Amino acid sequence: MDRKIRIGYSCSYVPSSLLEQAGLEMIKVSERELENLAGNKDMLNTLCSLALKSTAVIDACDLDGFIFTNCCNSMQRAYDYLIHKGKKVYLLEIERKQREDYKEYYTHCVRELLEHIAYDFPIQKNLNNITIKAGWNIPMWKNDFDEKAVLVIANIIPTHIEKLFHDIIQPCRLIIKSCHRMICDQEEKNPSVLEREPCVHSFEFAKWLEELLQKNQEKLYGIIFLTSSYCDASLFMYPYVRKTARKYNIPEICLETSFDYSGMGQVATRVEAFMEGIQNRKIYQYQSTSEEFKSKKQDVRLDAVISSLQESGTIRADMKENITFLTKIRYVRAVVGKMEYDCLKTLISYQIDMVINKLKGESEKIVWTNMVMPVELFYSMGLIPVHIELISGWLASLGLSKHYIMLAESMGIASAVCSYHKAVLGLLISEECLHPKTMVFASTICDGGFALGEYCSQRFGTNTFSIEVPYEDNEESCQFVSKQYETLIYWLEQNTGMKYSKKKFEEALQLSNQSRKGWIEANRMRKDTPDFKGRLALRNLFGTTFLFGSKIGVQVVEEYKKDIQRLQKQKTGEKRRKRILWVHFSPLYRNELLEYMEEDLGLSVSADIVSYIYWNEYKMEDGILDVSKRLLSHFYIGNEKRRKNIFNDIINEYEIDGIIHYMHRGCRTIGGSAWLIRELALERHLPYMELHGDCIDPRGNASQQDFTRLEAFKESLEGV
């Protein structure tokens, strides 16, 4: 090749000057170039438009390769897609939180990136001669803002939007901070891989913004917060930006956009009104002092929000009486004994007791977490893990999710945020349960969990710990996660007062192995038991894996096996049903969809990915290493071939006849990989259907249309 290797990138975290030392020509793909690219019809349209546009960038910009950063689920899916298409793309891990023990790992990631590019292309420079610095100094804007400056904080800023801002905001100076651009770019002076202004995906962003606004509060004219419709990190960060801006009496406005030209007139009107309003800064002088702003008295309570929504006619006048979560869940306890499976009786009784007796009164022992986080460590320390997915599921099942979601949205949480997180936030804002004191999340497949933790940290003062899980599963990644786990143990001791015991941790791991083994056996028995109602496993039993590591978890699994064995002994003579693989959760506010599918159409949910055991048995030689490997083994991260192989294994083992992919509106990860499942179904000659909807939010539910599509899907199974 006569010319230099052309490697594209768009994220400002990519150390381009360092890569140029290796002899590469680094091409920063601008918003203008991305804006003109075609979209991607294969991928979900609820992914960030920046990620969707990036899938066409290599061919359109005459690049040899492209560097993505592991900043969000949308970028992971774009990276997956291009790898599958045979493109030379690379994924660089970036730090979300500054810690000394992270330096070595992130330095390794940059070195590994260079080696991967050198493997694909002839690089003449000796990579060993390139020094990779790793400092932690965050660059801060050194110069004062102009007297009339407007700050734009954005993940993307399309060129037509930027031009519009310049035209309207003149003569003010426009200062832009986006995923593509830093306010203060010191990369050329100091090519450290870590010295970057934090973006909204970073836990350091709030601290950085506070310092920036405090220094320039008298000179900063206003803030425009611009986000794409499906960037969870940005959407969760806006309430904090609004709070901080108001603290320093700086006007702000939030706009959602994409790379197309839709809504330009509305954007122009809102920005014009915003600029007219801040001509006289006095109208934005808030009455509260900084100390008063921090006071809980400034928080909007449930009563005030409900009254406002009632007056507007948005909700019924009797909503307050019907909205109480703790009251409604007590009613369920009265009917638990009538459930047909013993495993459900035990599981749901435990969950009700946890909500009523623990969630309300034992907040010191409660650890809020997400479904991909292994919980054995919590049980071994006498802590009680509470999963946001479980609580949201209960809110939906009790018919309360809509109201709590509306409450969260009234407090500034965007409609595009996943409803699992909005429902829980609404519950916490309502103060019907105590604010979380401790949260621990893993970043594995859900940006929303990370963002929720940061939001609660800022709003409720929650102690939050996040385990950053790299995308690739290798030895260095495993060591990186293990070090974080070791830090987590000390952190939990300091924040909960509970003590770690290696012996008790090993006992919890053994209980988890026991539950895992029994769960796999039960799932295999279930496929040959047509009378078993798979919809109940999908709706209710998924919470069992949250108990792995406890004695109650072992009990539920054993009862699950016995329930299936009892059905097998009855021998009703029912013939084999068509076996369906269900991908993702189901809509938890409506039982009738899956009931219609199994009872009326005679199909069977024989397997679902929610209950699929993807991790290996713990070897017990090193417990921390075991759980670290589990985090890295999730099949929605890492090589897309591994994901495809796992789905192939499920299809073979459970003798699947068709696949239904429920496209939950707020999920970027699972829905964003639908193209792979669609392709696999085509290869295996299996009927495949996507149902679009929301698992938690009942608004916009198209039930009759779904019933019609299920009927058509059944007809397509006749020839299988």
How would you sum up this structure, described in words?
The chain has 720 residues and is an alpha/beta fold. Among the domains are: 6-94 and 99-129, Rossmann fold (3-Layer(aba) Sandwich), CATH 3.40.50.11890; 149-294, Rossmann fold, CATH 3.40.50; 325-375 and 383-501, Rossmann fold. It contains 29 helices and 16 strands. Strand 15 (658-664), helix 28 (674-683) and strand 16 form a beta-alpha-beta unit. Helix 9 packs parallel to helix 20 and helix 15 runs antiparallel to helix 24. The longest helix has 25 residues, at 502-526.
Strands, helices and their partners?
Blueprint: E1 6-9, H1 16-20, E2 25-28, H2 31-35, H3 49-54, H4 57-60, E3 65-69, H5 73-84, E4 89-92, H6 103-120, E5 149-154, H7 159-169, E6 173-177, H8 205-216, E7 220-228, H9 232-247, E8 252-257, H10 264-277, H11 290-294, H12 302-311, H13 319-322, H14 325-333, H15 342-359, E9 366-369, H16 376-380, E10 384-387, H17 388-397, H18 401-410, H19 419-430, E11 438-442, H20 447-460, E12 463-467, H21 475-496, H22 502-526, H23 534-539, H24 551-570, E13 578-583, H25 592-600, E14 603-608, H26 623-632, H27 640-653, E15 658-664, H28 674-683, E16 688-693, H29 703-716
Parallel strand pairs: 1-2, 1-3, 3-4, 5-6, 5-7, 7-8, 9-10, 9-11, 11-12, 13-14, 13-15, 15-16
Family: Belongs to the FldB/FldC dehydratase alpha/beta subunit family.
InterPro entries: FldB/FldC_alpha/beta
Protein name: 2-hydroxyacyl-CoA dehydratase
| Mean of pLDDT | 85
**Distance N terminus to C terminus?**
51 Å
- How large a portion of the residues is in β-strands, by DSSP E? 5-15%
Which radius of gyration do the C-alpha atoms yield? 26 Å
Number of separate strands: 16
